[in-house]
Amino acid sequence: MDFRLNDEQRMLQDTVARLMREQYTFENRQKFLDSEEGFSRDMWAQYAELGLLGIGLPEQYGGYGSAIELMVVAEQLGRGLILEPYLATVVLGGALIELAGSEAQKEDLLGRLIGGELLLAFAHGEPQSRYSLSEVQTRAEKDGDGWTLSGDKAVVLHGDRADLLIVSARVGGDVRDRDGIGLFLIDPKAEGVRIRGYQTIDGLRAAEISLAGVKVAADAVLGEPGQAYPAIEKAVARGIVALCAEAVGAMEVTNEFTLDYLKTRKQFGVPIGKFQVLQHRMVDMQLELEQARSMAILAAGRLNADDEERERTISAAKHYIGKAGRFIAEQAIQMHGGIGMTWEYAMTHYAKRLVMLDHQLGDTEYHLERFSRLMQGAEEETAA
Amino acid sequence: MELHYSPEEQAFREEVRQFLREKLPPDIAAKVKGNKRLSRDDYVRWHKILGEKGWLAQHWPVEYGGTGWSPIQRHIFDEEAAAAGAPGIIPFGVSMVAPVIIRFGSEEQKRYYLPRILNSEDWWCQGYSEPGAGSDLASLKTRAVREGDYYIVNGQKTWTTLGQYANMMFCLVRTNTEVKPQEGISFLLIDMNSPGVTVRPIITLDGEHEVNEVFLENVKVPVENLVGEENKGWTYAKYLLTYERTGIAGVGIAKQALRHLKYVASKQLKDGRPLIEDPLFRARIAAVEIDLMALELTNLRVVAAAEKGGVPGPESSVLKIKGTEIRQAITDLLRRAVGPYALPFIPEALDADYDDEPVGPDYAAGLAAQYFNRRKITIYGGSNEIQKNIIAKMILGL
User: Fold this and answer.
1) Which of A118, A140, A163 marks a domain boundary?
2) pLDDT recorded at residue A380
3) Sequence ranges of the domains in chain B
4) In angstroms, how far is the first alpha carbon of chain B from the final one?
5) Is the ipTM of this complex over 0.90?
């Protein structure tokens, strides 16, 4: 049992931390946010140069590290509150190609992804599906050698910025069946694809995507059509590992801002941190951060466990992170008072991210219910 | 980063399991698992079994008869002992006064008291709290005045846990009233059989006799029973409070209680189905299990850091607060799990020799009483509010 990072992991952490500190200042972030693109292509190129776009992907295609490295990097990116499509492209997109792609697809797509030349988005959720991973109404019909896709995809993270969409569609089975889901690579400019992009309230990009008879060639199918569910579940688990670590980074910064404010803001002639009612709330925020950090570590550590243990742990972690993130965000805003309500103050953007990442890849209730189903039952021998 | 136990640690776990299978008396385990009352003799028997194996003094230095276990080994023992239904080790002698004697006591004190703790000859109790000194412990008023070779002690101690069984008490007394409260306190070892010592029971809200008042009237205590230096007692008391933090989370106890909760919820019915299948109740169990998963890992982080010689950071402060909150949440669910059968109050049913028919399911007896009893855990050992004051000051710098 050892929770220390090794030398290489520490170097990786330092590298990303320095990049965030020096280049992803709040001022710069707001410039990226207000730009046409909504994020920084220049930062993306620097991530590629530092090897960050290959984290968690196989070494043979230029990738590096596994779940722990992903956790280390995502935590620092969370501290930077980055706007780039790291989750959509590297974590979810990269995982799907790694898990479902053919050798040729991996060679081509992972190579370009890791080199910084390919942005991906995972178009999976639908207007009616909420957080369900198996509810897919979008249909894929066999069409000669290829396929024709029709349906609607909802709140696709960075869906309006991707060079290539990974779209899930049903080739068989009922709407909520795990069996019968396929993955298809679609050019966003292809005929029949309509994309309506927008900003999310936490500063990222997303899109509503509708597909009307979109033609997909045989070689643009990812994996065996109908058998995609296990890859989707695993890719989402990797996404949750990244989200949990990102949240921990954002919680750290939010707590640092709040603690600093308690020590500097004076009312009634004293720093407000002298008031016990605020001290205890600050302590509660620290306790939640440490518990959340433990869950992020556990999720990363169990990412490669067997399916049942992995999914149970992932749901436990996402539930906890969602709860702790919202708690910390709400406390931080309240304890800052008026300034905590303003757009110009950096902390408020971390708070928004902490609340909103509960709306990605399943929220606290969704994962509580899921964990509850996966939870191990009573053992008879504990009887009195 | 390595989240798994090493083969050596797993082998150690197996060794502990085997020991517990062979040596833990089944009648005692049945009482613990059945939430029945334990006698003084039950505790002493178990302490002696551990003492004979050399496993009682788990964090003493080896030269004094300690196990030499690493923090992780101690954690593994706690987990396995709780799962097997072993009683908790009564901490006052082996975990509280002994480390202070080892660190600050005289050679004579070490030679005399430590073996008597190891072989369970002495039962120690703690003389800290007073009617006017709870969270503000340093305001304690019990006076010790030096007269020749004795201190004459006058005052009152309270909340003395299992003081009715004790023959020795380690006691904080005021030896100087002229200085700051913290600077006039001494650490005395008092023979409970001395003339002038009176123990009176305090019955707690669950109807049990666990804590006591101890009255000290002109009690003569030999000066050789002073530990360390006069007026340095506060330093020793603080050392004692921070000495052993890795067990404070109570993860082993909480895991066993959670297993029991699932067992009870699987036996109870709601609408003809096991309660554990009710989505709402099941989700409540799930939520507390998730909290416990987080706590277990936080605890392991602290334990592993201690193992590698690191100084526990803020995460160690989580342990007491979160650990007690989670254990209370589980006793709350246990009480709620049995529904109306939480109401019957039949204290005799908690005696091992009770042979009347139980009212309701036998596991229901005592669950409400246990819930009320466990309200103490967020109060004692420095209330959770005091813990937060400490974190705010020492860690956050507020």
Assistant:
1) A118
2) 52
3) 7-89, 123-231, 245-395
4) 33
5) yes
Asked whether residue A82 falls in the same domain as residue A139, the answer is no
CATH number, domain at A26?
1.10.540.10
- Amino acid at position B293, single letter: M
Per-residue confidence (pLDDT) for residue B353, from 0 to 100: 87
Chain A hits for B317, Cβ within 8 Å: 287
User: What does each C-alpha distance from A116 to A22, A50, A119, B277 come to in angstroms?
Assistant: 21, 11, 8, 49
Q: How many domains does chain A have?
A: 3
For residue B314, the model assigns a pLDDT of 63
**Phi then psi for B69, rounded to 5 degrees?**
-70, 150
Residue in B283, B294, B362 nearest the CB of A291: B294
Name the pairing type of β-strands B143-147 and A205-216: unpaired
pLDDT per position as a tens digit, A147-166: 999 999 999 999 999 999 99
A295/B contact by beta carbon, under 8 A: yes
Q: What topology does CATH give the domain B123-231?
A: Butyryl-CoA Dehydrogenase, subunit A; domain 2 (2.40.110)
Q: State how far the Cα of A145 lies from the Cα of B1, in Å rounded to an integer.
A: 48
Cβ distance B279 to A372 less than 8 Å, yes or no, reads yes
d(CA A94, CA A84): 15
Tens digits of residue pLDDT in A274-322? 999 999 999 999 999 999 999 999 999 999 999 999 999 999 999 999 9
Residue A384 pLDDT: 37
Which residues face A196 on adjacent strands? A208
The residue to which tokens 């002038």 are assigned: B196
Chain B contact for A270, CB < 8 A? no
- Alpha-carbon distance of A68 to A90, in angstroms, equals 15
- Say yes or no for a CB contact (<8 Å) between B391 and A286: yes
Strands A164-170 and A205-216: unpaired
The fold of the B245-395 domain, in CATH, is Butyryl-CoA Dehydrogenase, subunit A; domain 3 (1.20.140)
